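Quick one, tokens below:
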């Protein structure tokens, strides 16, 4: 009996090893370098955000190694590991927007009306797992989830040129100035989450045996802040479009 069990175990291990080796056959590798444009935003623009006044491009670079494998003539799988930055530098006009900041050493929380400046930076390692559809050998469509580990993050800014109602919309009115000494500053970096999950849609086009270009659209499903963070009234999700070049190694 022991000999039979031992034989079955060896046979199973051999089968697993053979299958794993088969999965590693016919892999295609490509290096990718891209630039992303987007931001962290609520799902739908709330009435408390009246206008987007300024958007400054930030160094949102994307660099990594992609791996692709055919399964059938048209279908395949794609994955890889990418280092990317998802940041934004924006200014907006808000009305009765719930937030908190520090002015003159005093912490104020309530409903703010005026201008808000936000500077966000997130450096992360991203692992996508996507199904692919090949229209031909040079054009592939990709769709699937991604998981990101945020290695470093920053969410800072200031409120200016308005007033805050402390506590609730009818609370004490405190005027907030526009210069560095009278505006309110905030730093929510320590309240940001380290893991993010979302969906990634992309297309690859190889115009040469090795060289190609790609376009991606990523949509985060997890708020960038921890679950217990409620200082900002809306959940914020990373939504970014990326364009770049790729080099097919094999």
């Amino acid at each position: 009996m022991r000999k039979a069990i031992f034989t079955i175990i060896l046979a199973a291990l051999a089968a697993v090893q053979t299958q794993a080796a088969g999965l590693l056959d016919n892999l295609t590798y490509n290096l990718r370098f891209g630039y992303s444009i987007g931001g962290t935003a609520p799902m739908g623009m709330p009435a408390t955000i009246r206008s987007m006044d300024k958007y400054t491009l930030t160094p949102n670079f994307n660099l990594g190694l992609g791996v692709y494998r055919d399964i059938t003539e048209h279908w395949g799988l794609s994955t890889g590991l990418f280092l990317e930055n998802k940041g934004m530098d924006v200014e907006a006009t808000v009305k009765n927007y719930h937030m908190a900041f520090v002015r003159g050493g005093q912490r104020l929380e309530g409903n703010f009306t005026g201008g808000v400046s936000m500077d966000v930076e997130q450096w992360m390692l991203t692992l996508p797992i996507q199904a692919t559809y090949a229209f031909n050998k040079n054009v592939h469509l990709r769709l699937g989830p991604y998981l990101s580990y945020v290695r470093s993050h920053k969410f800072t800014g200031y409120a200016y040129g308005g007033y805050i109602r402390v506590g609730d919309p009818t609370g004490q009115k405190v005027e907030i100035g526009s210069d560095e000494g009278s505006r309110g500053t905030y730093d929510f970096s320590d309240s940001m989450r380290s893991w993010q999950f979302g969906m990634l849609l992309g297309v690859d086009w190889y115009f040469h045996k090795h060289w190609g270009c790609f376009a991606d659209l990523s949509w985060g499903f997890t708020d960038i802040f921890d679950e217990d963070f409620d200082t900002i009234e809306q959940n914020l999700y990373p939504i970014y479009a990326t364009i770049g070049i790729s080099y097919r190694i094999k």
